[in-house]
Amino acid sequence: MRVGIDLGTTYCAIAYVDPKNGQAKVIRNSEGSPVTPSVLYFDPNGAVLHGEEAKSYLEEGSERTVNYFKYHMGDDTYSIFQNGREYTATDLSAELLKGIVREAEDAVGENIYEAVITVPAYFDHFRRQATMEAGQKAGLQVLSIISEPTAAVFAYGIHGKGTNQTVLVYDLGGGTFDVTIARITDDEIEVLGTDGDHQLGGKDWDDALANYLTDQFEEEFGIDITEDVEMNIMLQAIAEKTKKQLSERPRSKPTITYEGHKGAYEVTQEKFEEITAYNLNRTKDIIEKLLGELGMVWGQIDGVLLVGGSTRMKQVKDYLTEMCGRPPMQGVNVDEAVALGAAIRANIDLEGNVVEEAARPMMIGGTVPATKPSFAIAGAKKIKDATAHSMGMIAVNKEETAYVNSIMVKKNSSIPTQVTKPYELGISRHEENRLEVYMLQGEEEALTYPLNCIVLGKYVFTGIESSGGRTEKINVTFAYDENNIVQVSAIQERTGRELSLHIEPVEEDMSWVLENPRERQRAASGQPDMCVLLAVDLSGSMAGEGLEEAQKAAVSFVEQFDLAYTQIGLINFSDRCVLYQPLCRDRNLLIRKIRAWKINDNGLGYGNSAEPFNLANSTLAGCRQDVRYLVVLTDGYWSNAGEAIRRAQKCHQEGIEVIALGFAGAKESFLDAIASRKDFASFTDVSELETALTGIAKIM
Ligand code: AMP
Prior knowledge:
Helix content is 30%, strand content 30%.
């Protein structure tokens, strides 16, 4: 059998679709209740109890109990120890799932194999994955993880009232708040947007009330009861009970007994509203923010759908009635809605068609044959869900001056979806090349430290092939599936090959995001900078095509280098020789300068009596021996060729690699003489200049 499970922070519920009539129904627990407390008790004999039984131990203040573990789903750093074993939040959820599934199996007399489990809409990738794992650990095949409000909208659809409406789902549970705006048409539920706060729920109302009661007690008896752990647990229970009473009646008078003192304090609905107003206002702000992001106003909301036990509070209903202009929709039990919706989802595919169940062994023996569904599900619709957060990765900005959050999938995008962005990776010749993708969840592009976004993971890609160039283009893809789980992949553009991926732990100290990326890369590489001077002949004979092609070639040349590791400077010569641009790392500046080249600029003259070697020698003097290059581009014979060759040889002796590229009237024997090695001299046609010069950049 397939079920839908609402795995709530404080309560859970489990439902199935009755094949007799296609109606979703909640399976009551052994005590006849539709909801079961999300509490575990670790019995000293090793058994794990759940639900009401565990909750009664909790209320007695037993330290063998655990609750609110849903807060910690997906958090590797959280775990508890009970009965000599460590339990993560996933393990605890698995124990709870096992417990409620076992109970449900007993109630219906059938084995439960498959489930759709719900999570808050804002649950990120890792929390959803942890929820899926919890289901698997409990022995279930998890068909899908869906958002609670989406499930609730399904449940609402069961009653057939939901066509062509825009609804706001206000979901306030025990520990979480979610708001979702969805459009419901005849055959589709489209989630337009969602937001929430996973640290806000009924518990915050309990806490505020508990504080109020403690203050009253202290005022009367001068005793601070918050110091006492057991008393605190009891106080929580008293506050929750009082809160629930105030949903039904205008006043309540809880009593607190401690160390022989007994205080009774009347709390009216108004007082309760007053001391908890802050919490309600937080939900209001989140709704206004979401409406703003979607460019909507309250007037466009046809109805409000309530989900979660805390929506029973009078002030919640009053506020929503005032804003919407009509009371929240009726007909769906707020505790059951999510589980009912999940049960429907468990029986249909993404298109809204009812799917058949595979053959299964029966609990009492024998086999249940594969069933072609004989029922139609009322309210079955196609789902178009949306992402709750923007998802990006750390990248270097265009100016290469800062690390930024490069957003890949924007918040409230329809899923499934996938986005690919190119990433330029600096290639090292000395080490294995790896692309580190830090997956970020957050809305702002600028990064701060402490981080203003959450780092969800560090995905490391290896197997990058180098073609000898300085950089390689890698296309990184983020793909959301319909469970809102993200897969990251990367393909090297040149080879078309998918790179191998492994996940590494995220560093605790991420303060490097504030550093200058170039400086950081250089420091990390431990490599000395390469210094490259490009000396270009701007004599009169270059006018026209020669100059144009030389400019094109020089721009391509500059683009080949990763300027984190290389400084480039420009020399122009004719009858004079000028350091047109000192060594720098500013690609844009270099390109601007190249594009501004003119014959006889800076009084260069038109002839060819100057040579660039002396100037190159002094300019490169500060750079390290083995990484100094002078690339000379010329179109003709130089009038002081002998002197030029002597000075070129001086460069060779100094360890400067001279590469010579000639075209048009340049003489090959001269090129050979000025180049530091025979294979560093070449002659080409003017039309091939760009190819030749980029080729040189690649071998450097
Ligand atoms: P859920 O996680 O949706 O099961 O919601 C549980 C939360 O709803 C808990 O904080 C309960 O205290 C709260 N709750 C349940 N019933 C009521 C009620 N009648 N009035 C106010 N809060 C309630």
